[in-house]
Amino acid sequence: MRWLLALFCLSFITVSQASAVETLNGKVIEKVLVLKSAHQLQLIMDGKPVKTYRISLGKRPKGAKLMEGDKRTPEGFYWIDWRKTSNNFNLAMHISYPNITDSARARREGVDPGGMIMIHGTPDTDDTPEDLFHTLDWTDGCVAMRNRDMREVWNLVPDGTMIEIRP
């Protein structure tokens, strides 16, 4: 019976988060597209980009993520599956890495694929102002963006949205 109550609560949280998402011209964003080589994150609606943002990637941006600690940003198809506020990175939206392909490749190689890949903001303190990070690839494999851009994406992209990350 407890599992039923937990399921009900989780579904209520998901619905309440989705209802807080803003729309563009009455439509919801259908896909997030990351173009690693262009350092862009695009919000896709009706098959076309409607918003484009400059992003930072893992410290080793070329190539797909293979294992924990390789400082690479994954490549492939994933979902935005949950979100949180972050003391270090403002807002953060979780990417469902590893997918089945990533897990199988890591298993074949005998390595841990890693996890906790997010789209997130940047630190912004007196010691580390946000502008220091904007043009660098500095993450451990996440996709980072300016905090004002992250707030906009947070408000426009609901949980459950597909994200495609291309080389």
Could you describe the 3D structure shown?
An 8-stranded mixed β-sheet has the order 3-2-1-8-4-5-6-7, with helices on one face. It contains 3 helices and 8 strands. By secondary structure, it is of the alpha+beta class. It is globular, with a radius of gyration of 16 Å. The chain is 23% helix and 27% strand. The protein starts with a helix and ends with a strand. Strand 2 (40-45) and strand 3 form a beta hairpin.
Question: Which structural traits does this protein have?
Answer:
167 residues; disordered N terminus; alpha+beta; 8-stranded mixed β-sheet; 3 helices
Spell out the blueprint of helices and strands.
Elements (H helix, E strand, L loop, with lengths): L1 H18 L11 E5 L4 E6 L2 E7 L21 E11 L3 E6 L4 H10 L8 E3 L22 E2 L2 H10 L5 E5 L1
Parallel strand pairs: 1-8, 6-7
Antiparallel strand pairs: 1-2, 2-3, 4-5, 4-8, 5-6
